[in-house]
Write a structure and sequence with these properties.
This protein is α+β, with helices and mostly antiparallel strands. The chain has ten helices and 20 strands. The relative contact order is 0.12.
Length: 408
């Protein structure tokens, strides 16, 4: 019982800290301060003083373990009376705050590196299964209460930008903010910039629909804005924030039909798309549906994904192939070899994925987006290799839409 009592008390104090009485919280804080002081200054503390401090420490532990309120309060007062004049006992609040911050950061980075990683979906390639960052043109910016509600439920923000001078877009680049958010910076010929919380491909699609970006034989051309003309008036819905299980594939192999995240090392995604496909080439991580495993013979006979000559049977893949709303009606579509001569999966072609036993890191997988009409995936740039895979997408953390919860 002597061993179990402190353990049970620790569990109660940790799990019900908000409901712990003030005298008990003060006792724990004083005991922790005394423990730190003894551990840090023990070599310089005189033997008689050290014996006194250790005696008070044991008395406090016993009083806390047996919930003796009066003894805890008296011991707290005695410790503070004896120790507060000692240099180093009363710690600077700023120092404690900084130390706590670094401890939290170490724990966060450790979890992110080895166990679970948050990932923000930048584009709409997995819709309607998962939401990417979407730009919706609007006629009017709604009232403040409506905007707050949209922020809570959709993670959305509103942009209403008007050109202050005659100017033209001369460049754009995508970047990460705080490791979780994707944003695109537009640069203008008057040296001004505009930062939009959306992926570059999504912004290009918006500009194209607004008639401000056209494709010419010489490349993209941005049309100028007049002073007072609207540059962007839209609602930007944040992409789903998902948690990626980085440990799962250490204990099991990837499974066909699940949603997974991988990095883009060694994957050449540039130069193989047209403007009708959302540009993800600036990203470092993709999220797709795992549609082919090592050793599979994979092909596409619209609307079906063929595995070893037969339609794939996994429910998540069959749902996309069925083409029922809100999924694309065409299901899976192979690419036209004449239009995309460098594409990997074209009409009438099948590929066999490598299953190298001697080089497990080179095993190959097929990654396809559920939004097959607007997804830059393995059809264009080929297979994902084992060393690229990070883990399955496990849980949608935010925003609180119908997608919230476990990911299938």
């Amino acid at each position: 019982m002597r061993i179990l009592l402190p353990v049970l008390n620790t569990i109660v104090d940790s799990c019900f800290a908000w409901f712990t009485p003030a005298w008990r919280r003060n006792g724990h804080e004083t005991a922790a301060a005394l423990r730190r002081y003894i551990n840090h200054f023990r070599p310089g503390i005189k033997d008689d003083k050290l014996e006194e401090l250790l005696s008070m420490q044991n008395k406090m532990r016993d009083a806390l373990a047996h919930w003796r309120k009066e003894d805890v309060q008296n011991t707290t007062l005695a410790i503070n009376t004896v120790c507060e004049p000692m240099p180093g006992f009363k710690r600077n609040g700023i120092v404690e705050m900084v130390e706590s911050f670094f401890v939290i950061m170490v724990v966060f980075l450790g979890i992110r590196t080895y166990y679970a990683q948050p990932f923000r979906i930048p584009t709409g390639s997995m819709q309607p299964s998962l939401n990417g960052i979407i730009v919706h043109p609007v006629e009017e910016i709604p009232s403040a209460p409506t905007r707050w509600w949209h922020t809570l439920t959709l993670g959305s923000s509103y942009i209403d930008e008007v050109s202050d001078t005659n100017k033209r877009i001369v460049g754009m680049h995508q970047q990460q903010k705080w490791l979780l958010f994707t944003e695109t910076v537009l640069s203008f010929d008057d040296r001004s910039t505009l930062t939009i919380p959306a992926a570059q491909g999504t912004i290009m699609q918006y500009l194209r629909e607004q008639g401000k970006m056209i494709e010419t034989p010489f490349g993209l051309q941005f049309l100028p804005y007049r002073a007072g003309e609207t540059i962007m008036k839209a609602r930007v819905d944040a992409g789903d924030m998902v948690i990626v299980n980085r440990m799962a594939y250490h204990f099991r192999r990837p499974e066909r039909g699940e949603t997974f995240v991988f990095d883009t090392r060694g994957i050449n995604t540039s130069g193989k798309t047209t403007l009708s496909i959302e540009d993800q080439s600036s990203g470092t991580h993709y999220i797709k549906r795992l549609c082919g495993l090592p050793g599979d013979k994979v092909g596409i006979a619209a609307p079906h994904l063929l595995i070893n000559g037969s339609p794939a049977q996994e429910s998540t893949i069959s749902t996309v192939a069925a083409g029922k709303a809100p999924f694309n009606p065409g299901g899976y579509q192979a690419l036209d070899a004449h239009m995309y001569p460098n594409a990997y999966l074209t009409t009438g072609r099948s590929v066999i994925l490598r299953s190298a036993q001697d080089s497990p890191n080179l095993r190959e997988y097929i990654a396809l987006g559920d939004n097959t009409d607007n997804s830059l995936d393995s059809r264009y740039w080929g297979p994902v290799r084992q060393f690229n895979i990070i883990g399955p997408a496990a849980f949608t953390l935010w925003p609180f839409t119908p997608h919230w919860g476990n990911i299938h």
